[in-house]
Automatic annotation (TrEMBL):
Family per record: Belongs to the gamma-glutamyl phosphate reductase family.
Chain ranges of the Aldehyde dehydrogenase domain: 5-286
One example GO MF annotation: NADP binding
Lineage: Archaea, Methanobacteriati, Methanobacteriota, Stenosarchaea group, Methanomicrobia
Full protein name: Gamma-glutamyl phosphate reductase
Species for this entry: Methanolobus tindarius DSM 2278
EC number of the protein: 1.2.1.41
Enzyme class: oxidoreductase
Pathway participation: Amino-acid biosynthesis; L-proline biosynthesis; L-glutamate 5-semialdehyde from L-glutamate: step 2/2
Length: 451
């Protein structure tokens, strides 16, 4: 088994070299073929997904699978349309490969170019969410990266059908290489992948906190991602409460099973008694369980019809629920809110609701998160919504890529030095030539063809 996995990885690694040089037109033709394949096979995808859903529901009844995971697993006709739209949005994006980032004249006739290039072979390991396959494959193809996919067993049928449709469409496109995309399906293969740092250049895990943390702790391969999605919304004493109700509701209820959903609501004490009762009624009607600090519990305890409030414990401030559960805390000031967010948060996405411009500025400067929202829902932290076409993941890293990551997170660069028999010896000794180090407004293609 290990040998078979290694053979797939080596095949993909070799294909990554060829894929890096495939033309933009060919890549776009392959992407359109992939989108059309999904559109032509909707029934096949839904049938495969239904098998996964039925199996997942059985596991949920046994307590072996959470409702959040079941929700992420579901594929609908509208989700397929979203997959198709995502691929076609990637077609519209400029090809990022081979772009001149910087150009510098070292000396007359000796020019240095910094040029964008693919990372190489990307390993994508994810739980549930079959829509990860078209999102990531389309971005990897456009950016010239080969990809190893390892999906969760709960989405086995869905992943296989979607992957096969996409891969066949891509490989059948004239000018495309074969073997650049590989699918692995068994649990044992995960540990095998983690040990293949000689071939795999980057890992992107998509799943639970424990799942991502396991990846980060058990491989030498660089990992792009986040272990937690503990997101906050702070409602300031100078907030427009009509905006606050809308943003706070959307941040929690619109889709609670994802990493950019709000998990903790912070409310300034000055407006808590005015704001919280109506907000709590909205949450209660939506089935949200509220876990309250002492002050918010006292305020809400006076409302008889609320179905689900409880006292928060310390662990609640550090918990990503991925469900209709919300922690609520009353704070005395924005400074206290900032301190709480930076202490308990995961540096993912945090928001402030206020009309005070100075507070907006201070909040954006002091919140150490990959996305900071001003009077807007945390749910906007998403590659598609950020105009990246699709998303390979959300990163809380502070190197290489941060926040919702699109194609820019799948690129690195290399240096190309264009000379004419130049040698370092000419720049040493008493009669050494001097470097000019002059910025150039040129592209590498012009220099290479000229030389």
């Amino acid at each position: 088994m290990v040998l078979e996995i290694e053979e797939k990885v080596i095949e993909a690694k070799k294909a990554s070299i060829i894929l890096a040089s495939v033309s933009t037109d060919t890549k776009n033709e392959a992407l359109e073929a992939m989108a059309q394949a999904l559109d032509d096979n909707r029934d096949k995808i839904l049938e495969a997904n239904q098998k996964d859903i039925e199996a997942a529901e059985k596991l949920k009844r046994k307590g072996e699978l959470s409702q959040a995971l079941v929700d992420r697993l579901k594929v609908s006709d509208s989700k397929i349309s979203g997959m198709i739209d995502g691929i076609r949005d990637v077609i519209k994006l400029e090809d990022p490969v081979g772009k001149t980032i910087d150009a510098l004249e070292l000396d007359q006739g000796l020019e240095l170019y910094q040029v964008s290039c693919p990372i190489g072979l990307i390993g994508v390991i994810f739980e549930a969410r079959p829509d990860v396959v078209p999102q990531v494959m389309s971005l990897c193809l456009k950016s010239g990266n080969a990809t190893i996919f390892k999906g969760g067993s709960e989405a086995l049928n869905s992943n296989r059908v979607i992957f096969d449709l996409l891969n066949e469409a891509a490989e059948s496109t004239k000018g495309m290489t074969s073997g650049a995309f590989q699918l692995m399906e068994t649990r044992e293969e995960v540990n095998d992948i983690l040990s293949m740092d000689a071939y795999i250049d980057l890992l992107i895990p998509r799943g639970s906190n424990a799942f991502v943390k396991y990846m980060q702790d058990n491989t030498k391969i660089p990992v792009l991602g986040h272990a937690d999605g503990i997101c906050h919304v702070y409602v300031d004493d100078e907030a427009d409460l009509s905006k606050a109700y809308e943003v706070c509701f959307d941040s929690k209820v619109q889709y609670p099973a994802v990493c950019n959903a709000m998990e903790t609501l912070l409310i300034n004490a000055e407006i808590a008694e005015k704001f919280l009762p109506k907000m709590a009624r909205m949450y209660d009607d939506a089935g949200v369980q509220m876990r309250c600090d002492e002050t918010s519990f006292e305020i809400l305890g006076q409302i008889d019809f609320l179905k689900s409030i409880a006292r928060a414990i310390e662990d609640d401030w550090r918990t990503e629920y991925n469900d209709l559960t919300l922690s609520i805390k009353i704070v005395e000031s924005m400074d206290e809110a900032i301190e709480h967010i930076n202490n308990y948060g995961s540096h993912h996405t945090d928001a402030i609701i206020t009309e005070n411009d100075l507070k907006k500025k201070k909040f954006t400067e002091l919140i150490d998160s990959s996305s900071v929202m001003l009077n807007a829902s945390t749910r906007f932290a998403d590659g598609f919504r950020y105009g990246k076409g699709a998303e390979v993941g959300i990163s809380t890293n502070k190197i290489h890529a941060r926040g919702p990551v699109g194609m820019e997170g799948l690129l690195i660069y290399k240096y190309i030095l264009v000379g004419n028999g130049d040698k370092v010896a000419d720049y040493a000794g008493p009669d050494a030539k001097k470097f000019t180090h002059r910025k150039l407004n040129k592209k590498v293609g012009d220099a290479v063809s000229r030389k």
